[in-house]
Amino acid sequence: MIEHRRFGNLLPHLILLAGVAIVAFPVYLAIIASTHDNTVIANGQMPLYPGSHGLETYWNTIVSGTGKTTRQAVGVMMLNSLIMAIGIAVGKIAISIISAYAIVFFSFPFRMTAFWTIFITLMLPVEVRIFPTYKITSDLHMLDSYAGLILPLIASATATLLFRQFFMTVPKELVEASKIDGAGPIRFFWDTLLPLSVTNIAALFVILFIYGWNQYLWPLLITTRDDMQTIVIGIKKIIDVHDALTEWQVAMATAVLAMLPPVAVVVLMQRLFVKGLIETEK
Amino acid sequence: MANVTLRNVRKAYPNGFEAIKGVDVDVADGQFCVLVGPSGCGKSTLLRMVAGLETISSGEIDIGGRIVNQVEPAERDIAMVFQNYALYPHMSVYNNMAYGLRNRRMPQPEIDTRVQEAARILELGAMLDRKPGQLSGGQRQRVAMGRAIVRQPKVFLFDEPLSNLDAKLRIAMRVEIRKLQRRLNTTSIYVTHDQLEAMTLADILVVMNGGQVEQVGNPLDIYQKPATTFVASFIGAPPMNLMPLSADELKSQLAGDSRINDAGILGIRPEDFVVSNETVAGGIALGLTVEAIERVGAETFIYGTRERDVQGVAANPGELPPGEVLVRIPGAIGPAIGERIRAIAAPDKLHLFTADGRQRVGP
User: Fold this and answer.
1) I need a surface site. Which of A153, B131, B262, B273 has the fewest CB within 10 A?
2) For residue B323, pLDDT beyond 80
């Protein structure tokens, strides 16, 4: 349905532009706000043009932190968030690809039991099992550690299911050809299955990285030390100050900074991501 | 180089289904053995048992003097070409061929020599850097063959390798496979359901049905002297006409034949009929009403019904309906529809089988 009318394209474009404006305006506002002095924002008149304090604000936010509110520099928080998000994404992918491999390609007693057990955990996200999980994490002395941030979130029924569905489409002759070519189970996994799964892994990585980056409740519970804070919690703490003026420019700068890594991941992996979601040819 | 011997090989599944019910086959060194049969007859299962991809319930499989029942596929010194080629989609043509050799820790110069040699034989030289996805069906087929050749195995196993190709390419590849096998002189086992492919490729033909071997032998011997009605109707296209010998005129025509006492079914190949008004001593003459005619240029197929309404044998799919007889005559000239004709067959063209069709009567 391709039509070329002189003004026919105008209306769709207007609608699209309106949509973009609605989505992008708050982001624009956050960026603008982060470039102004706190007094400008605090008097209630939010300007729509960039201010002159941008570099100064970001420098303070990332490197030194500010004395009154965040005792921790956002740079450290970003590092924590990054380690957690990458740890969760990589860990989830590693564990689920191995369990899917076992479930699809090997026959062992209670194979289907194992599969359904994994499946059932779909119904048990962190929020539901938060107390037992906290107890175990604390008993293992993993509070305030990267392991404590990452490990309890690592098991993933969704990713296992996704890999299982993909593995089941791999022709069984490919497995047999590998056997005849002298490749054992581990070789087959590394040489054939993993390269074939690259696009799926990339798509999952994008989704899981953002999932990990956006974690709020779990890091809030198990981190008490300031140097273990993640950026999502950092934002909350900056806004939530008592007996002082909220440093809006810092809060906005932190929000902008918190947006950057997920955006970067999506932009960098966009091609693989789309391929992974739509590709059917093996 | 090696011979392959199957001794009373059986395959039973845990649910009690017997896929292979005791098969004995002996393939001599350098021979091309074709397993042929309808789908579900167990031919692929048997091949996969030789490859080591299926376990053997009982019996022995011997490759080159070594019993391989418990040997892993990779250690059986075989190479297999799959129906869907099973090429590694992420590897280049070169790596597809080299992969098995690398896994065997062969030195790189040797691998390179072998792959280049195979590429030369199969005319794949210009495509070594491509991925299987960029190749045509025939080229993929050749890569799959190349992957088998570079291994220089004792035995090639082919599992319906041509069934994914179009008709023209299939014939071309069939000839190529045969030439290649002659040249390399490697013992081969080839599975197909196409009787033409089976006839043209085989040194030794194994006709299978329902998990059992119906007949083993030279393709022409099998064509000329089918051991059962199943073989008679499966080998040869169009299939042999099979008519029951009840108390009717057929029986009286054969009254002088010594085989008649044991026989219950008469078989005549469509191409062994002659349309004529003469009579042949000891032969058969059928009065037919022409129902349909197919002219393909070089030959003409006449579908006729016999005068009397006789119950025929249609035990297998693809056979003619009871009472209908197919006559194949050379040339494009033939009778018209509705015409009455007489089809005669000489005594040496008659095949007689016992009433259950399981045994051939006489020579």
Assistant:
1) B262
2) no
User: Does any CB of chain B come closer than 8 Å to the CB of residue A123?
Assistant: no
Which of A180, A187, A196 shows the shortest C-beta gap to B80?
Answer: A180
Q: Assign B192 a pLDDT band (cuts: 50, 70, 90).
A: very high
Look-up of token digits 């990713």: A159
Cβ pair B88:A174 closer than 8 A: yes
Domain co-membership, B348 together with B257: yes
Q: Three-class SS of residue B353? A: strand
CA distance A193 to chain B (A): 10
8 Å CB contact of B99 and A173: no
Between CA B156 and CA B177 the distance in angstroms is 11
Domain boundary residue, one of B224, B240, B274: B224
- Residues B94 and B175 grouped into a single domain: yes
In a shared domain, residues B84 and B169: yes
Alpha-carbon span B154 to B134, nearest angstrom? 31
Rounded to a whole number, what is the distance in angstroms from the first to the last CA of chain B? 36
For residue A71, what pLDDT is reported?
A: 60
Mean pLDDT of chain B: 88
Q: Are B51 and B189 in contact (CB under 8 A)?
A: no
Quote the domain boundaries for residue B212: 4-224
Question: B86 and B144 in contact (C-beta within 8 Å)?
Answer: yes
Global model pTM greater than 0.90:
no
Q: Contact, A198 vs A204, CB < 8 A?
A: no
Residue B148 φ then ψ, to 5° = -75, -40
Best of B90, B158, B160 to substitute, by most chain A Cβ atoms within 10 angstroms, is: B90
Listed residues B224, B248, B283: the one ending a domain = B224
For chain A, the distance separating the N- and C-terminal CA atoms, rounded to the nearest angstrom, is 31
Hey, CA dihedral for A90, A93, A96, A98, is it positive or negative? Answer: negative
Quote the longest CA-to-CA distance of chain A.
76
Regarding beta strands B284-295 and B299-306, do their DSSP bridges make them parallel or antiparallel, or are they unpaired? antiparallel
At CA A231, angle to CA A229 and CA A232, rounded to 5? 105
Across the interface, which of B53, B104, B133 has its CB nearest the CB of A179? Answer: B53
Residues B89 and B172 in one domain: yes
Single-letter code of the amino acid located at B174: R
Pick from A174, A181, A275 the residue to mutate for testing the B interface (most B CBs within 10 Å): A181
Partner-chain residue, chosen from A171, A181, A196, that has the shortest CB–CB distance to B103: A181
* Residue B215 pLDDT class (50, 70, 90 cuts): very high
**Average pLDDT in the B99-110 region?**
93
Q: Is B297 within 8 Å of chain A by CB?
A: no
CATH code, domain with B334:
2.40.50.140
Examine the domain organization and report whether B235 and B220 are in the same domain. no
Cα torsion at B304, B305, B311, B313 (round to 10°)? 0
Report the alpha-carbon distance of residue B363 to residue B360 in Å, rounded.
8
B13 touches chain A (CB under 8 A): no
Cβ distance A54 to A35 under 8 Å? Answer: yes
CA distances to A75, A144, A162, A202, B195 from A209, rounded to whole Å, are: 18, 21, 16, 10, 57
Which has the minimum average pLDDT: A37-41, B122-126, B342-346? A37-41
Say yes or no: A173 contacts chain B, CB-CB below 8 A. yes
Residue A240 corresponds to which amino acid?
Answer: D
pLDDT tens, position by position, B20-35: 998 999 999 999 999 9
Is the residue at B301 inside a domain? yes
Cβ pair A25, A33 in contact under 8 A: no
